[in-house]
Structure formats: C-alpha cells, structure tokens
Amino acid sequence: MTNDSEKDKERFLKNIEKDASGCWRWCAGRFSDGYAAFCLRGRTLLAHRASLLLFTEKKELTPGLVVCHSCRNKDCVNPEHLSEKTKEENNGSDRIRDGTDIGGERNPRSKLCWDAVRRIRQSQESRKTLAECYGVSKSCIISVLRNKTWKE
C-alpha cells in the first residue's frame, strides 16, 4: 500500500465512532441529503463508497452498482457492513425486508385499493375503460394487469 493510502485511512478513521452493533458512525461532513462525505484522491465521494475503496481490495467501484448498508444504517461506513448491489436490489428487496416499502394501500397517494385491483384483474373491460372508471392512467392499469405493481 502506498503512503498516501495509509494517510487517507488515518484521516478517514478520525471521522468515525464505533458503536456496539459494529457500525462505524460517520461524525464529519455530510451532503445535503444526510449522507456522509469524504474527499479521496481529489474527489468528494459518499463516505461509504470511499470506505469500500480504502479498506477492501477494490481499486474502483463497479459502474452501475450502488453501495448498500446491510446494517440498514446510512451513517455507517464499516466496510464489513457494505456491499455493491443493483439499484433494483437496494430499492426493492431491501425495502420490503426493512418494512420501508410503502406500496399499495399504505401509500397515501394511491388511487386504488386491493379490492379494486382484484376487480381490474378479473375484468373483461378494455384497459382504456378501466383507466377511466378508476381514475388512473392506462399505463397504471397495464402495470396492475402484468403484476408489475400491486404484487400479492
């Protein structure tokens, strides 16, 4: 490892606080969305992404993938709690697992309910007619019919 790499690690570790769960909580700068920020190799990165570069064998992160927290703590920068996943994995299965997915009737902006979804799926009416009847778009009806939304 280069001397610069060791200095970056030392500088990084000065900004964390380890807790009982094993998380390394970030105690320094943040972006406006609340995620930790760290300057590495002349670029300001999300600190959890910088952590994977500094403390694993990775030289660069895989394009198109995001870094996810297995501990479900966005303040955590412990590389043992981080992994690369697709956006779909991060936003889909993780939200369902964590109970933070607000699809279906739990979404306050939803125009449909489960009874309506079941009636739509059993109906012989055209998609256009169903959309007009339920006050939603034709693409919404298509998504319901194809089980892309409102999955049981």
Instruction: Describe the sheet with the most strands.
Output: 2 strands, antiparallel
In the sheet with the most strands, the strands line up as 1-2
Overall morphology: elongated
Based on CA atoms alone, the radius of gyration comes out at: 22 Å
Q: What integer is the average pLDDT?
A: 87
Stretches where pLDDT is under 50 for at least 5 consecutive residues are: none
Instruction: Report the top-level CATH class of the largest domain.
Output: Alpha Beta
Number of domains: 2
> How many helices in DSSP terms?
6
Fill in the CATH topology of the largest domain. Answer: Homing Intron 3 (I-Ppo) Encoded Endonuclease, Chain A
DSSP helix fraction = 25-40%
- Can you count the beta strands? 6
Helix/strand-derived class? alpha+beta
Could you say what the CATH architecture of the largest domain is? Answer: Alpha-Beta Complex
Order of helices and strands: HEEEEHEEHHHH
Percentage of residues in DSSP E strands: 5-15%
Q: State the end-to-end CA separation.
A: 51 Å
